[in-house]
Amino acid sequence: MSHDPTRPPTPQEAPTMLLSRVAENAYWVGRYLERAEATARLVKTHTELFLDLPKSAGLTWAPLLAVTGSDADYHLVHDHPSEEEVVSFLLADPLNPGSVVRSVEQAREDLRVTRTMVPRRTWETLNELHLWVRDTRREGIGRTGRLAWCEEVIRRCHLVAGSIYATMNRDDTYSFLEIGRFVERADMTTRVLEVEADILMAVPDGGLRPFVDVTWLAALRSLGAEQMYRRATGGVVHGADAVRFLLFEPQFPRSVEHCLIGVSRWLLELPRQEVPMTECAALERRLGAIDPTSGGADELLRVVDDLQRGLNLLHDALGATYFSPAPSLTGAG
Q1: What is the DSSP letter of 61?
Q2: d(Cα 70, Cα 62) in Å, to the nearest integer?
Q3: Cα 55 from Cα 193, distance rounded (Å)
Q4: Helix, strand or coil for residue 5?
Q5: Which of the 8 DSSP states describes residue 210?
Q6: What is the pLDDT of residue 6?
Q7: How many C-beta atoms lie closer than 10 Å to residue 54's C-beta?
């Protein structure tokens, strides 16, 4: 049932609102599941790109650390971004809060304490995913089994999401799950675009420059966007078209525009949504006012930095409104 955003909740509505801890857990389950799937897809796509490009292209594994925002944590324990160490760090390291293994573990822990709010099959499917990544995590590090391991993570994450979508009541718990999922997706899309802008600015000549369209194709693949992009644009991959698609395409579920629409839609189902709704509306206005392809890589970098700051403000507004005490931004930005 939708709520009028201009009025406070009535006494009859207030008891139906989730406890703040349950709401926070549901929000983070959505974020962690999305993060695990996105990280697995990133590693899979980068591995395929690494195999496709010649060594002269100068491709390294450092961009994966930048996309996931884990550069600082990685360099606390490693000197250089070697393939094996980066892949192990992102997929299997239990001490990396953003690794696939750790994200799934955190999603399971958050869902465990709120499992009465979700269908039993959803809990069972997530528990199976947790046990599988824990028991097989070493298989994803070497090149031989990496692509298959990452693909299996993506498939199992989809099973959990499908169980939630197909069988869960559209209540407040579902709303927080969806909001967490959309915030994480928008954050990941802007991170991929940020790294792409960094690459374009770093290689004015030689290096990856002859392969710019290939790297844009990899960026689309890392967000599961290649086929839908080709369908929408006629098939040829160009950087400017890819940027517009990932930022503005309302029909694509991982575009920033679609994610902000999703956050707004599920906020309307919650009481006391005025402040987070205001932050979300401000982000939508910023997005609608920009032309990130008019100023080259510098302008694209400025745009995604601005969008990431807006997403952090939205995260803070959600925390201050619904979670007590408000969570830190660890893993959010």
Answers
A1: S
A2: 10
A3: 23
A4: coil
A5: G
A6: 46
A7: 9
Asked if the peptide bond before residue 5 counts as cis, ω within 30 degrees of 0, the response is no
Q: CA torsion 235→236→240→242, rounded to 10°?
A: 40
Q: Is 73's pLDDT higher than 50?
A: yes
Measured distance CA(305)–CA(71) in Å, rounded: 17
Query: Please, is 236 exposed, middle or buried when counting C-beta atoms within 10 Å of its C-beta (0-12, 13-18, 19+)?
Result: exposed
Whether the predicted model's global pTM rises above the 0.85 cut? yes
Measure the CA–CA gap between 156 and 150, rounded to whole angstroms: 10
* CA atoms of 223 and 218, how far apart (whole Å): 9
Least Cα distance to 246 among 294, 309, 185 occurs for: 185
pLDDT of 245 strictly over 50: yes
Residue 77, judged by CB atoms within 10 A of its CB (0-12, 13-18, 19+), counts as exposed
User: Coil, strand, or helix at residue 204?
Assistant: coil
Asked if 23 and 172 touch (Cβ cutoff 8 Å), the reply is yes
Mean pLDDT computed over 172-196: 94
What was the pLDDT predicted at 5?
Answer: 43
Predicted local distance difference test score (pLDDT) of residue 170:
96
Residue 201's pLDDT is: 60
In this structure, how many other beta carbons lie within 10 angstroms of the beta carbon of residue 52? Answer: 13
The pLDDT of 34-63, averaged and rounded, is 89
pLDDT of residue 121: 95
Residue 122 has pLDDT above 70, yes or no: yes
Question: What is the mean pLDDT of the segment spanning 74-81?
Answer: 92
Give one word for 272, left, alpha or beta, with left for phi > 0 and alpha for psi -120 to 50. left
How many other C-beta atoms are found inside a 10 Å radius of the C-beta of residue 71? Answer: 14
Calculate helix-pair angle for 172-202, 212-222, nearest 10 degrees. Answer: 170
Q: How far apart are CA 88 and CA 56, in angstroms?
A: 25
* The one-letter amino acid at 34: E
User: Could you tell me the end-to-end alpha-carbon distance of the chain, in angstroms, rounded to an integer?
Assistant: 31
C-alpha–C-alpha distance, residues 74 and 121, integer Å = 36
Q: What is the CA radius of gyration of the chain?
A: 20
CA neighbor of 261 nearest in space, from 178, 146, 162: 178
